[in-house]
Hints:
Blueprint: H1 7-15, H2 23-32, E1 38-39, E2 49-51, E3 56-61, H3 79-102, E4 106-111, H4 112-117
Parallel strand pairs: 3-4
Antiparallel strand pairs: 1-2, 2-3
Amino acid sequence: MADIFSKKERSAIMSKVRSGNTKVELKAKQLLKGRGLRYQPKIFGKPDFGSKKLKIAVFIDGCFWHKCPKHFRMPVSNSRYWRLKIDRNLKRAKEVNKKLKEKGWKVVRVWEHKVNKS
């Protein structure tokens, strides 16, 4: 199915999608306060929280963007685009995990719904 918006309109819509300070990240920030983890540290793979000193990287994986087995539903419209996009996200996450672990980092991935439940 074709997109109902022009490329320019779709670009404007997608530019409003936030990559930081999301509700789930802010909730996790409150939960992790005082644990020695920085919010959005400058670490390879761009973890949501981490500590260079402790070599810990924490990622909050969104149920949609990382294909949560419990909550993910593939969009009906433009499904080929979304399938490729989500598959790239999963592949990138595996590569980031592997590279950080090779460098001696502990990688923790938490589902968005687990943070919201806490």
